[in-house]
Amino acid sequence: MARTPTSAPAKRLAAIPAVIRRNTLLLAASQAFVGTGNQMIPTLGAIIVVKLLGSASFAGVGTSILGVSRFIVAYPVGKITDTYGRKAGVVAGLIVGMAGAVVTGLSVMLSSFVLFLVGMLIFGMGVGAAQQLRVAAADMYPTRLRGYGLGMVLTGSLVGALGGPVLIKAAQSLSRSAGIDATALAWILVPAFILPGLFLVLQVRPDPKEIAANLAQYYPGENVPTPPPPAPGQATGGFFTYVRHYPKLSAFTSMFAVQGTMGMLMAMTPLVLSRHGHGLGAISIAVTIHVVGMFGFSLPLGRLCDRIGRRPVLLAGLLIGAAGGILMPVTAIYWVITAGIFLVGLGWSCVNVASSALIVDTTGPQERGRAIGANDTFSAASGIVLPLVGGFLAQYVGLVAIGVLAVAISVPPVVLVLRLRESSPGRYEERPLAATR
User: Fold this and answer.
1) DSSP assigned state of 333
2) Is 153:31 a contact under the CB 8 Å cutoff?
3) What DSSP assignment string belongs to 213-241?
4) Distance in angstroms (rounded) separating the CA atoms of residues 83 and 224
5) 17-207+238-436 belongs to which homologous superfamily?
6) Model confidence over 316-349: pLDDT tens digits?
7) How much is the pLDDT for 160?
8) Low pLDDT (below 70) residues in the chain
9) Helix (H, G, I), strand (E, B) or coil at 398
10) What's CA 203's distance to the chain center, in Å?
11) 183, 348, 375: which is closest to 265 by C-alpha?
12) Which residues contact 323 (CB under 8 A, 6 or more apart)?
């Protein structure tokens, strides 16, 4: 019997060493547990704010505080992972995140808005540090498989999204007998989901940063490219050095746009659905569908990045996110709103996978944590400002204004990405930003 020839993609995947497969599965499984806790922010954040303040004007403050904490921690934790390894930064972040979740739950029980802000700040720092999981995933793969590695790990968050409604349902059931507000109890239960993820990260060996520094040993016979040196007169490892690098700037601004759009819409969506008579269960399902858009297609999008390049996926993500930003505010119909936030999540996913791959493509292992941290600083900045702007627009102008703003902030990165030159997947024209003017 003739043997069926093995496809080229299958051959490429078969070449992945066993230790890297194991580490990838551990990181993906940890994302599954951590993702359940992360879902509490868009699901319950705005509802808690209205419960504590009695007004929707500051409905986006929880998401904005999350942006503040990520803005504070993103670059410093990148320096930690560049110095001490990826596991050190991620483990520290998960511990801090568990503490923040408990404080947030207590804030509801004590009806303290100030304590809520503190809890969000602490939890956000933990979430921000855990973003270094993307670097850990990308570290272990060469350019031609980097999107695949990122997609595998990020897909783990999809399982976490499915756990969100389970956590909320359990909190609603237990709250009756415990005499605790369901939203408070949901947050207090979050550490029970994060702890297994912490244990799984500790099992990753060797540290992905160490694998990145010796990548050729894990992929013998493969030409592992070395990222190009910085331009003359530029030092490595500086925030402004990264900003002046055109491919990275394209990635940074793209994340700014999709993160800002998502922050605005997800700060308002639970409140809008609640006002239309939908309960926590329906809201949680809508948010889960949004998170499916964020992570459910990470693997095929990663494969697409490896096949056709990072640039087309970046561009597609910006356009899809803007389309979702328009769709969500124009109706009160549950499934249309849900479709809009799904598209916003899908656009974010495209940009998240492609931008992470691009940044790692153009950065050496010793500074990837800081480069990804710089990217997260950009996205956190949009997460600080735009949810608050969206809340005021919704209150005093109308929801449609949020859709208009979502389109407007997508225009500059689309222009930058259109001018980005990617000769082949993961290979770019290395030129200083000044050369494009």
Assistant:
1) -
2) yes
3) HTHHHHSTTS--PPPPPPPTTPPTT-HHH
4) 23
5) MFS general substrate transporter like domains (1.20.1250.20)
6) 999 999 999 988 777 778 888 899 999 999 999 9
7) 75
8) 1-14, 42, 56-60, 63, 225-237, 430-437
9) coil
10) 23
11) 348
12) 343, 347
